[in-house]
Input
Amino acid sequence: MDINTEIIGDRLIEYDALIIDSLVKDFSTNIHLKWHVNDQPHELLLNHGSRSINAIDFKTTNPNQIQDLHLLISSDTELGVNSSSIKNLTFKSIYLDKLSNQTLLALKSSQWFKFNPVEIKSINGYSSYEAMYLENLLYRLMLWLLISTTLYFLLNIHGKHFVISLLLAWLIASTPFIFNLYQQHQQIKQSFEQSKSYINNIDQNKFRLSKSILSEIENNPVLSNTQQKYIIMGANDFDSLRLFYYLSELNIAIAHINSIDSSQNNIVYIMMGKYLSNCDHQNDHLTIISQNQDFCMAVSK
Amino acid sequence: MMILSGLCYTIYFIILGFAARTSYHLISQTKLIIERKTDFLAHALFSGIFLHVLMFNVFQLLGINNPTALVLTVVATLFSLLVIITHAIKFGTQAASIKPTRINTIVIILVVMCSVGIYWNGSLLPNIAWDSWMVWIGKANQWVNHGLSIPIHGLNEWLSNPNSLFNVSAHYPDGLPLIYFLPKLFDINDSDTTYVLYLVAFAMMTLLLTSRLQRKGASGYLQIFMVLVLYTTPLLNSHLMIAGYADIWMAMYIVLIMLTFVDYHEKQDIGVGITLICYLSMLPMLKLEGWVWLFLFIITHLLVIAANHPYKYRIAGGVLVVLISVVALGGINLNFPVGNITINAEKIEIFHIINAHIQFVDITNEALAGFIGQNNWSILWFGLPFLLISFFISKHDHASQIAHVFFILALFCFFFLFYFTEASNWAKDLTALNRVVLQLVPCYIFLLFKMLNRLKGVQQENSTNPNQ
Output
């Protein structure tokens, strides 16, 4: 969705907020504001919430340097099997504005209650290095705690009162966290409403691929040897590892193409994706025993 | 069904641990004292998990196949039940007379509510924990399909050994895969069953910590506050919601070891000592860094013994002389058939457990992002300087010294590993930096609340043992 910056002209730089009113969308749909400054791409992920207030820093003071300003609506496919297509998204109005026109409460609650989705990397931390949007709340709470501690030591206040001030600080900091858990619940429900059997579409495809491979092995007379070893050609990435996971009934490994040892004649190589090209042309090391559009299997000559 | 299978699996571990603990009392002809139900059940559960892993390790060593392993497990469970019943008949059940106080009831209800809250989110998720499906469940799948006793190797060994399996993390220990393995043998959803075990184990640990805090004379509100902190600390919470990583198990066992160490120094009981050894052995069975924590606990133990020894200054002098000699000689370089011990300015190598080249990498930005930017996680670290100061300015008994010395050593070790070894790679990509800290967090939270409990006017007035 392009934004015509020519109409706005030089006033563009005066705006430091993008507001969307009455926004309704699902949690796997993301809206990014994107632009270029001196050919350098910049982007901002817009907040969820019915009134989405987003602070913008155009990274320049010259409005003529802002090029290709547009909104990109995309689907987050990391989790969930049905999130590839963009679902309904509605809003009442969308406009550029100044942050000073917003009330402090609206501004801060939009910032502090920003949705932080469940992702695979969530296991490593709560928020990413680039998105520490609670930082200013936390610094304020730290200052409060520092004052409480000073008062405890200097004025000899009752320990119970000091503990209560700590409890209050903890509850304030926990409120966005608990609210986010509620939002994450909606996100998880939407992402896995039909089935939680697969992590995402790639995972589901790998499951289907594993079934095809197993079926091919069962029906191919060359591969009837149960002592056979198999190697999935590829890196230790999500695709290869999930296929490995689904093929655990085979004696199977994952290796890069450079690791092929031509002296290993009891191994069947399974190739998919970019490795399929090994099966397309004449290969000095491999004899193709099965090939289709999704995978091919070969043994050393 | 998922909750039921998870609870049954938890009861299986409790039966194993319960029987082991009662066996000790049967052998030593002493009365089993179930001082607090939560204490006893928590220790029974965590001891049971250790025994399960040990038992299956023995099965692997003996080359036992899967059906036999299943039969032996059933036999072990029935035998454990027999031991418990024998003990109950011989000595009676004392625990039945213990009634929980009002605060105990509130704490238990709160813990159950928090667990249900996390389950509310986590049960809807598939297993997205990378380490879990790749390594822990990955190995369990391989054992189910090919046999428990088939060795799992890296690529080169797998290629050269016809009777072996491959895993990208073959060198990781087998503790957690063995926990996932048993439900698979019964053809039950292992991931969902073990998820309930994660939540119950954490709840048991929480109850154990609140019980300890109560024993130190802590008021009800402080106990409730600690439960809230344990369940709303971001990383602890996300490791319970996206269950499957071993770090939370490390965290639980580290805090248990710390408490059991304290108990051992207080009581000098052989049974407590055996429990301690079991928990310590569990660390390297769960994760490779378990070896580091194990070494630190041993060093802590030695340091506390030395610090309270009548010849402590001579011992300190002797250690200083050895250290100066090592520095003067340019380090240690010892070669053994089982591996090398090398410690110098370039490298630390301890057998095949640790092999790290020393090089300074500045990870300050990542550490600050990890510690300060993570929601209420940062509020937690506000207490760290005060805790460290309190270790030095307050007078502590020997038992408390163990907890404090371990915590300081662990922090020192953490910063050393991430600033000076290849571990900095996992700090730079923000993957393991917080997760290693997570392993110390329950221990830290407990010490923090123990410190708060010592503040003026916080303890209950009728406290019997206020200064421990």
Summary: Chain A has a mean pLDDT of 84. The first strand of chain A starts at residue 17 and ends at 21.
